[in-house]
Amino acid sequence: MLRSCGSAATSYGRVMHMRSLLARLVRSPRTILHLAVDRIVAPLWLRLLGVEVGAGCRFEGLPMVSLADGARITLGRDVVIWSREGSSGGIAHPTILAALEPHSSIVVGEGTGISGASIVARRRVEIGRRVLIGAGAGIWDTDFHSLDPAQRRVHATRDAACAAVQIEDEVFVGARTLILKGVTLHSQAVVGAGAVVTKDVGAGAVVFGNPARVVGTVRRINQGERGS
Ligand SMILES: CC(C)(COP(=O)(O)OP(=O)(O)OC[C@H]1O[C@@H](n2cnc3c(N)ncnc32)[C@H](O)[C@@H]1OP(=O)(O)O)[C@@H](O)C(=O)NCCC(=O)NCCS
What we know:
Elements lengths: L1 H26 L1 H21 L2 E2 L4 E3 L3 E4 L4 E4 L4 E3 L13 E4 L5 E4 L4 E3 L2 E4 L2 E4 L4 E2 L4 E3 L8 H6 L10 E3 L4 E2 L4 E2 L4 E2 L4 E2 L4 E2 L7 E4 L4 E5 H5 L6
Parallel strand pairs: 1-4, 2-5, 3-6, 4-7, 5-8, 6-9, 7-10, 8-11, 9-12, 10-13, 11-14, 12-15, 13-16, 14-17, 15-18, 17-19
Antiparallel strand pairs: 19-20
Helix pairs in contact: 1-2
Bound molecules: coenzyme A (COA).
């Protein structure tokens, strides 16, 4: 009896959801366009470009992808990528995924969410599972240009320093942060908005500032304490 009540309520919920979706569709041609881009164009476009897109990945808007011949970009199951301005807090540009050299790779783990961030690999950027990446964050394994002006005159980008970046499971990367070359963010670390991270961050540590410094741990902050 209880089960049949439950399933009736579920079907009623589904019907109501479909009705409100249909009502939205009829009201707004823009919604139809957005739904088409998000559900059909984005996954298809990424696959055509050579991105490996896991089952259940969801897109809001179209990410910008640059994939060199032989490079690899892999999105695990249930990854969510936000790229539409205004669709989620403070998104100012589409998510950028750029694997620039033949052996570069970007790997994004299951259930990770990325909001209008820029992820650039000359070597490797590896992002774990259930990581949250805020709007405007830059995760770059390269300085992009040599620090030596003589080198830059010869070639704008050749000889730039590079070192792989790793972000472990359940890290929270705040909005407008920069995660620079060679950094590992260990599991469940939190990077406060606007931080510039130049060194590894320990598991469960909370950092902010420029350059980022440890200000506490997730556990202590959850218990209402601050300071390291
Ligand atoms: C500035 C930069 C080029 C320096 O690189 P580097 O010479 O390899 O410097 P290191 O990583 O060895 O860091 C040296 C020190 O400076 C600090 N530091 C490095 N970059 C920093 C930055 N952007 N902000 C604040 N501190 C920084 C490091 O924490 C380290 O501090 P310490 O001496 O207390 O240990 C680099 O860190 C950087 O900012 N890269 C991004 C460049 C960029 O924006 N490119 C895009 C252009 S389109």
